Amino acid sequence: MNLNRRGLVPSIAIVIAAATLGGRANAQQGAGVLVGSVKDAATKQAIADVVVTVTSPNLQGEQTVVTDSSGGYRIPNLPSGVYSIRFDLENYRPYTRPGIELPVDTTLRLNADLIPDTLQAEEIVVVGRPPTVDVGSTSTGLHISSELTKRVPISKPGGKGSATRSFESVAEMTAGAQNDGYGVSISGTTSPENQYVIDGVSVNNPATGIIGAPLSVEFVKEVNVITGGYMPEYGHATGGILTAVTKSGSNEFHGAVWGNTAPGAFEGNRRRVNPQNTSIFTQRRLGSQSDIGFDIGGPIVKDKLWFYTGFQAANTAYYLDRSLNRYEFDAAGEYRKNADGNRITTLIPYTNQTYIASGQDYQAFGKLTYSINSRNRIVLTAFVTPSVSGGANSFAIDPASASPEVGSIAGPFSALAHKIVSNSFNTSLKWTTESEDKKILVDTTLGWHHSWGGTYASDGSRIGSTSGLATVPSVIWRKNNPGPHSITNFEPGSALASACSAIGNAKYEACPVIGYQTGGPGGLDQEVMDRYQARSVLTYFFQGLGHHVAKAGADSELTSFEHARAYTGGRVYRESSNGGSFAIYRDYGYLTSPDTAVELPKLQWKTRSMSIGGFLQDSWSLFDKVTVNYGLRYDSQFIMGPSGAIGLSLPNQVSPRVGVIWDPTQSGHAKVYVHYARFYESVPLQVADRSLSGEPGLNAVQGGKGCDPRNGTLAPGCGGAANRVTTGSPSSPDRKWSVVGAGGVPIDPSLKPQSTDEFIAGADYDLFKNGRVSVAYTRRWMNSIVEDMSRDEAQTYFIGNPGRGMARDFPKAVRNYDALTFSLQKIFSDKWLATASYTLAYLRGNYGGLFRAETGQLDPNITSDFDLRSLMVNRYGPLPGDSRHQFKAFAARDFELGRGRGIQLGGSFRASSGGPTNVLGSHPIYGGGEVFILPRGSGERLPWVTDFGAHLAYTLKFGPTQNLTVSIDVFNLFNFQTVTSINETYTRSDVQPIPDGTRAQLPGSLHTSTSNVDTIKPSEVNPDFGKPTSYQTPRYLRFGLRTEF
Amino acid sequence: MPPMKSTSKFVRYSVPSTATIAALVALTALTSMGAASCSQPPPKCTSVRGDFAATYKLTSPATGECSKLTGDVLGLATYNASKADGYADFDKASLAIQAEALGKLADRAQAINQPDLDAQRKLYAFGPFSTAHPSDDFCEVPAMNYGAQQNLPALPLIPAKKNDKGEVTEPEVPATVPMNIKYEWSNTRLLVTADAVGTQMSADLTYTENRPGNGGDCTATYHVVAVYPSVPCADDEGKPDIRLCSPNANPDIGMAQGSGLNPDFPITCDPVTLRCVLTEEPPAWK
After folding, report:
1. A74 and A149 share a domain?
2. Which residue(s) pair with A78 in the sheet?
3. What is the pLDDT of residues A1008-1026, one digit of tens each?
4. Comparing C-alpha atoms, which of B279, B44, B199, B117 is closest to residue A795?
């Protein structure tokens, strides 16, 4: 060592800091880990017994550990924040490195070379680029930090989750994720298949599987969207895992006050689709969507007890513009059409009326973080999300889809409007404890998700009310033989009557209505749902031919769904197709003996599910060169019907998961990995509520004379026995009543639970500072699915696995997803960030998932998919979520203007190729749209949908941590209005599918269902086939004002 | 931010030792993996609601008009008692059986305004299932609470119906003398499995005709085998056509949908009743 160089800058230890983006395999949910190894700078030998200490403003107290014989150290269970790390050992110079940014749920690798006291002068300075690759994990997905969500436009107004800007609405930024009707679909699956987790506690809706607590991003520190490749510690999902880690207090008081508004006045011009067979036009536009809120966190006892709390209120309003229109006829009496082939209509003056659909969402959040000592920490959180929409003056907003509850206002407000209330209360208690040497960590979580709500009549009356709309039966009008009603049959006014009178030799009704509703609003319900969860995970870090991070865990979950249903006035009446009689169409009840009916005022029962699971896994760094992740998960689920006895038994769900990771650079700068996993579905309780219990209902026919509820109320005696038409046949014991749905659906004794498998291979490379590029190939395929089926043309049903057991003559369920993703991620540093991805994907099969995208039916495991073998012809092909190319890019840059002023500029770009469309006909039993005339996907592909978004903000700092921000977010900047769905009904007649047919064979080879010779007539081809039915949502602006301290 | 001074690292708080917790968690993880499997719940005793195609096999000596029955369409339906809370008790089910032949006679009596007004005499037999769940795949109604019974007046002849071309579409139905008819069912058994929930039935029938004042009282016993649904299999010429019994649609012969019969049932087209019937005694599987 040359003494002369001592005067220069003192030697510094080598630190190769690694900020990783996704250390999920090694980190507990929400916690970060600091690992590394310490070497002697001169000899390059590992040093044991080095004292490693970390501190942070987000950490209560400090954490300390010593290096093992290989020089390795590991400090787990660290909340995210900025850390300072210090290395101490006798005879070596202590080394401290501040300013280490540890994001949520990541493993940071920080190696250090300590300089011996004896080493003089000669600096050994090697400054390398910090690696960003996490070499311990095979998970794919995206970390979405609050740095990203406040710099790019998110949660488009009017979309699902936009009212509260809920954390799951940002998930679609991830490669391999896209919005479906009820949430976000990940890796070709459907949204009810995901697990939605907040602070380690599942918040799925126990009945349907979609999200049950849409917590605002304001309270969330980071959202982790895991699309695949995850270890056995995550279960209960065949989709992805969306986990949110909420904010916490710290040793200083920090908080924010915010307000946002997206005024409908700035809505871009919309392209409209006009109906073709009704005179009622209803157009929707956004009124406004606004929210205000605040949060604050800080110490109660410094380093010991912190608090964080917040509140947000949001309001959403849509306008529904209703008008009445008459159709025009030519000299021959046929409809006059415009150049596009659409029927020409004329607005009838003074029939415009604007209705509102509005709702309010509130959220209140609270958290306490308590450090018992340096080895034990407790976190207690609680939050509520009450929401209410609709009422005496407004239509409601459907919480599942976030759209107004009506599409077409075909009836008076009182007959169609509801008040919908939906609340959730969530609480969790999390206790982490560590051994002295931090080699053993136990993480225990108890959680309770409680939700309640109901659908009431618009005047607030509910199931059991003795007055109000809840006591008025609903009447459905549907005459179509020989022709439909005229609007004048229902709505008064001489001007309307004269506008709608028959003119010339018009062959059709000038002002037709199809499906009009009067009376009360029909179906009401009330629900209470609970999920109790307990989970414990033990992590053990030890050496043995390398390093191991082994985990063992157990979790249990008890869910319940108490559901009450009723019809207003006890019954729904429906007009017959010729208008001559009214059937009792919906009426809960049963028969105790022939024609002896017990009509029930409501159906109410409670169904339950119990799941227990456990797992063992190990992440083994073989000789610290290659990491093997392997593990096994076991789950079993039992669903209990209303009687309390087991209704569906799904045990022995064994999920093996194994992966290998190799770092060719051996320094955390790159990795190549493969991973195989099996996932099992956690069946939501809807199947128990509807199928296992049956929904006992009665039908009867009441004569038309003396029972014509034209003025909205039924004549006295209309619904009584004296006016009941004799039905049935000489062989029927019942001649007045008939029965629909009773008892339960039997289960195939050899039923297997629903599962899917996944294979992933990929590589990451650390391209530039704090940024990396990756490529990943994902393949997912189904094993068995659980669905209800009938082998005897809808006479009897059972629940089984298509393709095996009782259902061996059904085709197996197929859903194959292949995707190749290229992505680039740079976390926010040096004032800018970027996230971009391109995915090339194929999604093919005959099974979409837990809801039917073609119809929107959300009945997990009991949809009309697979019901009959005759429905399965031509069902294999590209599935609704199949989008061949998807580009997503987000970028943001902060500019400082001096004197505390700054500008933030952010942008988003999304482009996805269009989905497939089908050619559909009617099935003799199941009706319209259920026959795939040509193989799935044989229709025209929808066009590309492109969307640019922009974010512009002006920031003013008026203190070290205090600032004020004014922002504008623009969604769909150029107001592109591409077609997003088309009419897929080729004919409304009952037809046979053409197996493996092509468009060229239509209509000449399209046979009716009753003949192999007769084909359909040209007049039976739907003239609206292929026409657009919806367009891209228009441009919106959201203004925001925010102050932080 | 400068590092904070910690509180003493060595203060012992009264939390369970880490080793104990670790052992407990590992134990729970391992025992949860050894959970016993449970089987699916059995179906409940019930029949399908609707028309069954029945064949009657005479088991008493062949004497008189009563022993000429060959089969019929039987309407079966299941009913449930009420529980204390008012809901249907699916563990307490009862069965009703109505013979179409008797229903048609009653309709004819109604048409001439002479129905049987005694409410005690019903067109159907009614009796409880003996168990809530099947045993050995069968649910039984050993005895009915009451049988079907009707007192009928003399009924006029119904002439044959002809179409425009003069062809007979429905044959002539002969006149009858006043008759009191009884159907008494016993040993009724229904096949109830996950694959066939009450779609096969067998029973013993005692059929009695009482002709007051006209003589010719008779009674006969039959063994009845019936299958759901009742599917007619006569072609346009009135000959049996087994293709009409197929569970699959057959547009070649104008069948838009399958017959609705379980594909695993052994079925033939009975030449006498011209309906699709089981070829074996229940449990009948291919």
Report:
1. no
2. A32
3. 888 888 888 888 898 889 9
4. B199
Q: 3-state SS of A656-689?
A: EEEEEEECCCCCCCEEEEEEEEEEECCCCCHHHH
Task: Inform me whether the C-beta atom of residue A695 falls under 8 Å from chain B C-beta atoms.
Answer: no
Q: Is residue B20 part of a domain?
A: no
Q: Which domain holds residue A215?
A: 141-246
Instruction: Quote the CA–CA distance of A806 and B284 in Å, as a whole number.
Output: 16
Instruction: For residue B215, give its domain range.
Output: 50-152+180-278
Q: What is the CATH number of the domain that holds A17?
A: 2.60.40.1120
- At residue A752 the predicted structure's pLDDT band, cuts being 50, 70 and 90, is very high
Task: Look up the CATH number of the domain holding residue A158.
Answer: 2.170.130.10
A647 neighbourhood in chain B, CB within 8 Å? 41
Residues A125 and A150 in one domain: no
Q: What ipTM does the predicted assembly reach? A: 0.87
Among residues A611, A733, A627, the alpha carbon closest in space to that of B97 is found at A733
A636 in contact with B at a CB cutoff of 8 Å? yes
pLDDT in tens, A453-468: 999 999 999 999 999 9
Q: Clarify whether residues A31 and A145 are in a common domain.
A: no
The predicted model gives A63-74 an average pLDDT of: 88
Q: Which residue of B has its CA nearest to A61?
A: B6
- A residues 111-170 closer than 8 Å to B (CB): none
- Residue B285 inside a domain? The answer is no
DSSP-derived secondary structure letter, A704: S
Q: Do residues A126 and A13 both lie within one domain?
A: yes
Domain membership flag for residue B237:
yes
Closest residue of B to A100, CA-based? B1
**Please, which pLDDT band fits residue A123 given cuts at 50, 70 and 90?**
low
- Domain shared by A8 and A122, yes or no: yes
Which of A110, A130, A150 delimits the end of a domain? A130
Q: What does the pLDDT look like over A11-68, one tens digit per residue?
A: 223 222 222 222 333 344 567 888 888 988 888 888 999 999 999 888 888 888 889 8
CB contact under 8 A, A536 and B25: yes
Chain B residues with beta carbon closer than 8 angstroms to that of A590: 79-80, 88
- Looking at residues B51-63, what average pLDDT do you find? 92
Structure tokens at A102: 């540890």
Count structural domains, chain B. 1
A130 preceded by a cis bond (ω within 30 of 0):
no
**Res A855: pLDDT:** 80
C-alpha–C-alpha distance, residues A198 and A195, integer Å: 10
Average pLDDT over residues A126-132: 50
Of A19-33, A85-99, A799-813, A822-836, which range is least confident? Answer: A19-33
Give pLDDT, residue B254: 86
A78 and A105 both lie in a single domain: yes
If we measure between CA atoms, which residue out of A198, A253, A191 comes closest to residue A382? A198
